[in-house]
């Protein structure tokens, strides 16, 4: 899946044609939300199944083996993670373009975590829910990543 952040300086000219950072696996959606929460130059963010709601994510994700999970669920560790959780930061993107694509049927990004992020997202966020990756492919193909981003930024 692709996640993208579009950077525009005050001149409203793109840093480069369709300059996109980061792009890659689902954890880059988490990075994109965190970066946009502290950098006002980021005008639009498009994420697919970002890691979020860390207490629940750590408890449920398939990324961890059971023996790895226990120390990560300690209250002192979770307290340190809280400032880095997109659920705690997504509201800072108010007034900017944000699309959160939530694809079910994947145990690496539990849907309950994504729904918590959606609930914390600012008004005007584009929320797209898909039952599974095939539904995303079928339905999402009508609004591909670059088309959505280009439209938001007036390209």
How would you explain this protein's 3D organization?
By secondary structure, the protein is of the alpha/beta class. Helix content is 41%, strand content 15%. It is built from eight helices and four strands; from the N terminus they run E-H-E-H-H-H-H-E-H-E-H-H. A four-stranded mixed β-sheet has the order 1-2-3-4, sandwiched between helices. Helix 6 links the parallel strand 3 (97-103) and strand 4 (126-130). The longest helix is centred in the first third of the chain and has 12 residues, at 27-38. It is globular. It starts with a strand and ends with a helix. The relative contact order is 0.18.
Which class of secondary structure composition applies to the elements? alpha/beta
Low-confidence stretches at least 5 residues in length (pLDDT < 50)? 1-24
* Mean pLDDT figure: 82
Strand line-up in the sheet with most strands: 1-2-3-4
- Main pleated-sheet profile: 4 strands, mixed
Number of helices: 8
**Spatial extent as radius of gyration:** 16 Å
Shape from CA axes?
globular
Q: How far apart lie the N and C ends?
A: 22 Å
| DSSP strand content | 5-15%
Measured as a percent range, the helix fraction is: 40-55%
What order do the SSEs take from the amino end to the carboxyl end, as H and E? EHEHHHHEHEHH
Q: Give the beta-strand count.
A: 4
Task: Describe the structure in brief.
Helices cover 41% and strands 15% of the residues.
């Amino acid at each position: 899946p692709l996640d993208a952040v579009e950077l525009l300086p005050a001149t409203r000219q793109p840093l480069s044609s369709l300059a996109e950072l980061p792009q890659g696996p689902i954890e880059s959606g988490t990075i994109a939300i965190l970066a946009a929460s502290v950098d006002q130059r980021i005008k639009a963010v498009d994420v697919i199944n970002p890691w979020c709601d860390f207490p629940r994510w750590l408890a449920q994700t398939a990324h961890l083996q059971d023996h790895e999970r226990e120390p990560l669920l300690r209250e002192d560790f979770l307290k340190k993670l809280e400032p880095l959780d997109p659920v705690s930061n997504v509201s800072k993107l108010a007034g900017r373009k944000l699309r959160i694509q939530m694809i079910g049927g994947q145990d690496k990004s539990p849907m309950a975590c994504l729904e918590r992020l959606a609930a914390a997202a600012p008004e005007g966020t584009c929320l797209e829910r898909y039952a599974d990756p095939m539904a995303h492919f079928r339905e999402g193909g009508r609004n591909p990543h670059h088309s959505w981003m280009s439209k938001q930024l007036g390209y």
